[in-house]
Every structure is written in C-alpha cells, then in structure tokens.
Amino acid sequence: MSLSDIFASTTGQLDDHERLRIYVEGIRERAAKAVPWGPDTVGLPAQAGENALMRINDIAFYANAREEIISFADFCLALLDSHRPRDAGALSSGRVTPAQRCRCCMLRWPCPTVREMARLVD
C-alpha cells in the first residue's frame, strides 16, 4: 500500500464521518417536521386476516415513530460527536498526515464505531 493510498483512505473515512452526520441530521429534521400520526390520521390499508389487536399495534407504532426516530437520531448524533478524529501526537514529515485516533475509544482513526455506522448506512 502506498502513502497516497493511506492518505486517500483516511480522507475518505473522514468524509464518511461528515456524511453520516449530515445523513442523521437530515433524518432528525424530517422527523421533527413530520405531522404526528394518530388514529384519525393514519390511513392504514386493510390486510387479509386483520384483527383489532394488529390494528392497535400498527397505530401505536405510527403514533410513536416520530418521537422515537427523533430520539434515535439524537443518539446517533451524540455517538458521532464523541467518536471523531483527533491528532494522536505522532510526528510526521512530508505529505503524510499525522496518525489520528478516535477521541472516545482512542482506537486508530477511523474507529470501528464510525466504520460500522458508515457500512450500515450504505
């Protein structure tokens, strides 16, 4: 692996962090702007073999989904805020960027948390 490959892959992963933040912020914004669903506003199509309990569960899911998505997006943003790169204090020379570590877990950047979040979103 050449030094340019290392630099390119590190830069790509840093972009993943920002891409994840923008993606999650977009989800949060859309959820916050969404109209809350209730029994009067949910137009669920009838299903074969539908029973009243299934219908109540569906309505409860939709009624709570907006707040749950906002909470989950807040969780993801907090996770991304804590898992971000920082300078590891290593010396470098030339065009090679200094080694970076995650601020939270102190593992080599990009840390497994950010890599896995990026993989799941893709």
Number of strands: 2
Query: Looking across the biggest beta sheet, what order are the strands in?
Result: 1-2
What gap, in angstroms, lies between the N and C termini?
Answer: 25 Å
Tally of individual domains: 1
Shape: elongated
One letter per element, helices H and strands E, the order comes to HHEEH
Helix segment tally: 3
Low-confidence stretches are: 1-10
Q: Secondary structure elements and their pairing?
A:
Elements (H helix, E strand, L loop, with lengths): L2 H31 L18 H31 L2 E3 L12 E3 L9 H10 L1
Antiparallel strand pairs: 1-2
Helix pairs in contact: 1-2, 1-3
Give an account of the 3D structure.
- By secondary structure, the protein is mainly α.
- The chain has one domain.
- A two-stranded antiparallel ribbon has the order 1-2.
- Helix 1 crosses helix 2 and helix 1 crosses helix 3.
- The N terminus is likely disordered.
In short:
The chain is mainly alpha-helical and 122 residues long. The protein has helices spanning 3-33, 52-82, 112-121, and strands at residues 85-87, 100-102. The chain has one domain.
